Amino acid sequence: MKRLRAWVGLVMLAFGVAAFVAASARWQGLFDLRVYHGAVRSWLHGGDLYAYRQPAPTRAFGFTYPPFAALVMVPLAAAALPVAAVLLAVASLSGTVALLWRRLHRPLPVLAGVVLLFATEPWRDTLSLGQINLVLLAMVGVDLLFLLDRRPAAGVLIGIAAGIKLVPALFVVYLVLTRRYRAALVAGGTALVTVCLGWLVAPGASRAYWTDLLWQTDRVGDIVVVGNQSMSGALHRLHLTAAWPALVAVVLAVWAFRVRKAGALPDHWAGLALTGVAMCLVSPISWVHHLVWQLPAVLILLDSGATGWRRHWFRLLAVGVYAMMATKVVWLFEDPDTVGYQVGSNIHAITGLVLLTAVPIRPARPGSGPERRYRRRLRIARDPYRGDREGSDHVRTADRLGSTGSDRGAHRPPRQQRASTHPE
C-alpha cells in the first residue's frame, strides 16, 4: 500500500509539473524554448539558423548551440509550443526520477527528492524557461550510473550531450582520468559524429558556428551580470579578470585529483557531482539555471554515509547550499552599491568552490554492480587462480559474506546439499 501511494504521488507530481509548465507561459514565458522552437522552425523553412532572434526586454537572443542540437530539436519544433513544453518537462522529470531512484531506491524518498528539487531556483527556472539542462544531466547521469562498467554502449549518451551543448565534454575528460578508456573513446567518437552530422545537414551553419559564433560569448549574454555564476562572471564583477586563467587551472587540478580518486573506488556519483560543479565554475557563462549540475552534490552531502561529526557537517553544508538555491538570495545583490555585493553577487560561485573540495567520496555501496566487480578484481589480483574457482557454491557463499560483513549462515551447507536433506 505504501508503494502504491508513493507511485500515485509521483503521477500526481507529473501532472503538477505539466500544470506548472502551462503556467510558466505567463511567468518566464518559456523564453529559451521559444528561441529553440522559433530558430529551428525558421531553419526548417530555409532560414538562417543563427539569424533568428527572440525579442527580450533588453536585447534579442538567438540560437547558441551547435547545428546538431537543432537536429535533435526538430521534433520539438514540429509540435505546437505548448506540446513541446510538456514533452520537454516530462523528459526532464523522467530523467530526474531515474537518477533519484538510482540513489534512493524507494518511491517515497524519490517523491520527496523531486518536491525538494522543485523548490530550487535552478530546477524551477529550467522548467519555466524551457531549458534542456535537466535532460542533459539525465543523459550524462544514465551513462555514468547505469551504463559505465556494465554496457558496451557506455559513453554514447555523454557524446550526444556534448554534441548538443559543448560543456558536457568535460565528462569525456572524466572518463580518461578514471581510466575508462573505452567509454572515453566511444564518447569522443560519438561527439565527433554529431559534429559531422551537423556539417552534413547544415554546412553553412556549421561553418559559421565552429569558426566564428562559438567564440562570441557575448551572444549568450552579458558576462558581468549577477545571473552569471561562473568564475569568469565572479572575477568580472570583482575586477580581477587577469586571475581567471590561473584560477581555472587550480580548479581543474583539484577536480582532476578528486575524480581520479572517485574513479578508483569507484564512486561515479561523486564523479558526476564533482564534474558538474567544475563545469559550472570553468565555463565562461553559467546562468543560475545551469546550476542544476550542482544539485547531485547536495544529494551526496545529504546521503554521504559518513558518521559522527562529518555526517553533521555534510548535512549542514547541504542545507546551506539548498537554502541559497531555494531563496534566490543572489538576486538581492544585483546593484553594485549594495552592501556585501562582492560576496553576495558571487555566492553560487563561492559555493561551487566549497562543493568542489567538500563533496565526500566513498566506494560503491555493497552489492552494487561496480562494487562486486571491484571486489572480484581485488580477489583475483591477490590469488590469480581464484578466478577459476568463482563458480563453486563455496566461493559464492564466501563472496557474499565478504561483501556484507556478516557471518550469518556461514554454517549452512551449499544450496544443493540443503535441498537434499529434506524429503520430498
Explained architecture:
The chain is an all-alpha fold. It is 65% helix and 1% strand. It has helices spanning 2-24, 31-44, 67-72, 74-78, 81-104, 107-118, 121-129, 133-147, 156-164, 170-177, 181-201, 203-211, 231-237, 244-264, 268-282, 295-302, 308-327, 341-344, 347-358, 369-382, 393-404, 415-420; strands spanning 54-55, 60-61. Strands 1-2 form a two-stranded antiparallel sheet. Strand 1 (54-55) and strand 2 form a beta hairpin. The longest helix has 24 residues, at 81-104. Keywords: Cell membrane, Membrane, Transferase, Transmembrane, Transmembrane helix. InterPro entries: GT87.
Shape: globular
Spatial ordering of strands, largest sheet: 1-2
Fraction of residues in helix: 55-70%
Can you count the beta strands?
2
Number of helices: 22
The number of domains = 2
Q: What is the string of SSEs from the N terminus onward?
A: HHEEHHHHHHHHHHHHHHHHHHHH
Distance between the termini: 36 Å
Query: Radius of gyration over alpha carbons?
Result: 24 Å
- Estimate the strand proportion: under 5%
The overall average pLDDT, rounded, is 85
Describe the largest sheet.
Answer: 2 strands, antiparallel
Structural class: mainly alpha
Report low-confidence residues grouped into runs of 5 or more.
367-371, 390-424
